Amino acid sequence: MMRAFVFPGQGAQTIGMGKALAEAYPASKAVFDEVNEALGENLSGMIWDGDIADLTLTQNAQPALMATSIAALRALEAEGVLVTDAAFVAGHSLGEYSALTAVGALSLADTARLLRIRGAAMQKAVPVGIGAMAALLGLDFATAKEVAEEAAQGQICQAANDNDPSQVVVSGNKEAVERAIEIAKARGAKRAILLPVSAPFHCALMEPAAQIMAQALADVEIKAPSVALISNVRAEATTSPSEIRDLLVAQVTGSVRWRESVEYMAGQGVTEVWEIGAGKALAGMIRRINKDVVCRAVGTPEDVLAAVESTK
Q1: Is 93 a catalytic residue?
Q2: Which of 195, 200, 257, 267 is 20 to 30 A from 10, alpha carbon to alpha carbon?
Q3: Which of 98, 202, 231, 255 is catalytic?
Q4: Would residue 92 show up in a list of annotated catalytic residues for this protein?
Q5: Is 121 within 8 Å of 38 (Cβ atoms)?
Q6: Are 205 and 158 in contact (CB under 8 A)?
């Protein structure tokens, strides 16, 4: 059975995530300790005992979700399942950084600092209230892209996340996104709703953040990953450090091609996908993309043991 490991993006955060892993596995606790040290603050305290409003702030959620994912991976490793057992890794938006950390392309400390920079830059790129994102449910990607283009009317409105065959997220100027909602309903969308996000991610309005990330990534060592990464921007495999650097910059304003990424992995023979970290959102998307791919969420000690048992 060919397996892929995937890593969740923003929105999966919950208070208490990863705490049981840290209590059960010293290697998992060491992840949170190293992230705390890299950021110069007690992020794990916020994750485990803080306020969800603080944790949901982009600059906190991004390193927190990455730390939880790597903590889950370290628990798997402690039980004998290695990332190199996977044929591919992939991550949804910030999850791409988790994936690259998992396969040794980025160090844990560098990733924590990069995600703090990324989160703050994305938040500051567009003043609050100027941008928005909306989920269009029941439209395929081609139709959703047409809706976004029709709604733009001189503003920015782009298909930001191609999540699965029935869910596309559009992003851009708030007025344009609101127009997209009405156009989508007229085009037969089952639902079209504004998302509770703090900024319009993965669209051209994020260009200031892309420039900041280009500078930040220029100063960080990126090694060849031990397992090929399926990138958000291209939805195909890469192991080139220079290409990965460019793709991480392009990802800030580019679409997350998740549906195509899953189809690519399935086309390469992947039959099982493990979602490493908080939540089960990606597993749900993958089931809607390809019912033949077996999905498993690995985010607690119980999940870890069940996953390990499934390999025997």
Answers
A1: yes
A2: 267
A3: 202
A4: no
A5: no
A6: no
